[in-house]
Design brief:
alpha/beta
Length: about 325
């Protein structure tokens, strides 16, 4: 089978297309013919040598979608369309390949109104978004801030919070063209950081109340600024570092507001949390209340170009490999 392997963790030049044996059916695995693979910042982190658990050579790809070819003992039907994420592309070969043997607990059936390309790019972002909202105590009427409306997690949090009754579902962009694109897509609570400071924008939208919950997948300077937008008793969850691994905070933003800051890792969550998150996400997908956004697709052989596009262009929506 065709696969894109990081022969070395040395940047884009470390990628190569190779032939590997097709995975064999196994009792605890479901054999999936991969039709699309999401391209994520984690893939770039690994390719750059920035993940302590990943070892080269490694087939990249942390999430994907496809069709069940051998269901093993999963109870699922052969031919079912499924989406999935897990340790794939991190501690074992991933989704940049024609087939993958997937743990049954990582599989989720794709709703009929969601195509494979959209499905391939949603598991990491939407599971992360829903779990972090739940852990932060989200309820209808809360105000949520998730920076980066064009990013996968920022967009997923904004959509899920809005669909579940948030008073305000606020996001940001540093690009005026993206702010206009967001407005055209119906995202009306966007702070355009090219013309307004984050704190000023959140105060304007919330009439000075601030955000009850911040879900930050960006890191860097934005983390400290987002912390300053919290309402009394609010919380910030940090889970990404696309804008930098180091941040400076004003501790009084925590102390005076009796606020909290915590971290999140999707793959450290128990199976019950995954099931609970999917039970919320799937009905919203089926109803159309949330709609995953795809910016661009690439062929499998163009994986390096897809990663460059994701990292350098910072597109509005997901980048997906079609297989």
């Amino acid at each position: 089978m065709h696969a894109i392997e990081a022969e070395t963790f040395s940047g884009y030049g470390g990628l190569r297309q190779i032939e590997l044996p097709k995975p064999q059916p196994a009792k605890d695995r479901v054999l999936v013919r991969v039709t699309a693979a999401g391209v994520t910042p984690l893939d770039h982190t690994i390719l750059s040598g920035g993940h302590p658990r990943a070892k080269a050579p490694l087939v990249l790809g942390n999430e994907g979608a496809g069709v069940i070819e051998d269901a093993g003992d999963s109870g699922l039907a052969v031919g079912s369309r499924v989406m999935f994420t897990g340790a794939y592309g991190v501690t074992e070969n991933g989704t940049y390949s024609d087939w993958l043997a997937v743990r049954k607990e990582n599989l989720c059936l794709i709703p009929d109104n969601v195509d494979d390309v959209a499905a391939a790019g949603l598991p990491v972002a939407y599971l992360t978004a829903q779990m972090t909202l739940s852990l932060a105590g989200f309820q209808p009427g809360k105000t949520v801030l998730a920076p980066a409306i064009g990013g996968s997690v920022g967009n997923a949090v904004t959509q899920l919070a809005r669909a579940q009754g948030a008073k305000h579902a606020i996001s940001t962009t540093t690009n005026h063209a993206k702010a206009e694109q967001a407005a055209a897509l119906g995202f009306n609570e966007i702070v355009d950081l090219s013309v307004e400071k984050l704190g000023d924008g959140v105060r304007r939208i919330t009439e000075g109340q601030g955000a009850d919950i911040v879900i930050d997948a960006i890191g860097g300077a934005i983390l400290g600024e987002a912390l300053g937008t919290l309402a009394m008793g609010g919380s910030l969850t940090t889970l990404g570092y696309a804008a930098g691994r180091k941040a400076t905070i004003d501790v009084t933003d925590l102390i005076w507001k009796r606020a909290s800051i915590k971290s999140f890792s999707l793959f450290a969550q128990p199976a019950s949390a995954w099931s609970a998150a999917w039970s919320v996400i799937l009905p919203l997908l089926r109803s159309g209340a949330v709609k995953p956004i795809v910016d661009r697709t690439y062929a499998l052989a163009e994986a390096a170009d897809a990663l460059r596009h994701l990292v350098d262009k910072r597109p509005f929506g997901k980048v997906v490999l079609t297989i």
